[in-house]
Write a structure and sequence with these properties.
By secondary structure, the chain is an all-alpha fold. It is about 60% helix and about 5% strand. The chain has one domain.
């Protein structure tokens, strides 16, 4: 529940720096999600995606001619495509900008899935009778919360996807070979990465808009 609150109300949370711990070999690694709320987890994104698929079926059953099994498949395909496009966009940006990290795959997949929490929030608002301009306000809020939670670089604290693209030198993590996953970022690289983070944040409204367009029977 604390992580869901963080996703929906990110402006109430601080600090955003991820915690590290020392292993028995004297190296540092990120603390797991159960010990650090700022650490990305796969449980909430996975459950949010499943909940989204089930909600689309419920929506079809409550409106229109009725439920049909194909709707679940269509919703699952839409969710998969959104996560895949978002993941590939971030990975492509990381490749072009030469951003390296040992846990990028899990982290990026988790960040791609957190948007479904906001989508569910908007869909649930429609279920309770909120519509028209008020529902638009709810959707815009969900988008802004997700964009703030991810990477918008106008706020200085280290947070979420920003920790992958703009690593904090004070939080360098040692690998088994003794190398660190955090490298110094020069001003030119930092500007390019901030631009990339901004594009990733803005793109969330496209993904979320596609997800809230629920199929009908």
């Amino acid at each position: 529940m604390h992580k869901i609150k963080l996703v929906l109300f990110p402006w109430l949370h601080k600090p955003w720096a991820r915690r590290t711990r020392r292993t028995e070999h004297g190296q540092h690694e990120w603390q797991p999600p159960r010990d650090d709320i700022n650490s990305p987890d796969l449980y909430i994104p996975a459950m949010a995606i499943v909940t989204y698929i089930l909600l689309t079926g419920l929506h079809a059953g409550l409106s229109g001619p009725g439920f049909r099994p194909q709707i679940l498949g269509e919703s699952a395909s839409r969710a998969t495509l959104v996560v895949l496009f978002d993941f590939l966009f971030v990975k492509l940006g990381c490749y072009i900008l030469n951003i390296q990290g040992s846990s990028q795959f899990v982290d990026i997949f988790a960040y791609s899935g957190y948007k479904f929490v906001g989508v569910i929030f908007a869909i649930a608002a429609g279920f309770v009778g909120i519509g028209g301009a008020l529902w638009t306000v709810v959707f815009v809020y969900a988008f802004l919360a997700n964009a703030f939670f991810l990477p918008i670089p106008t706020v200085s604290p280290l947070r979420s996807l920003r920790s992958v693209v703009l690593p904090d030198p004070s939080n360098s993590i040692s690998s088994s070979s003794g190398a660190t996953t955090t490298a110094t970022v020069n001003p030119a690289q930092r500007r390019r990465r901030i631009t990339f983070l901004f594009l990733e944040a803005v793109s969330q409204i496209v993904y979320m808009a596609a997800l809230v367009r629920l199929p009908t029977a």
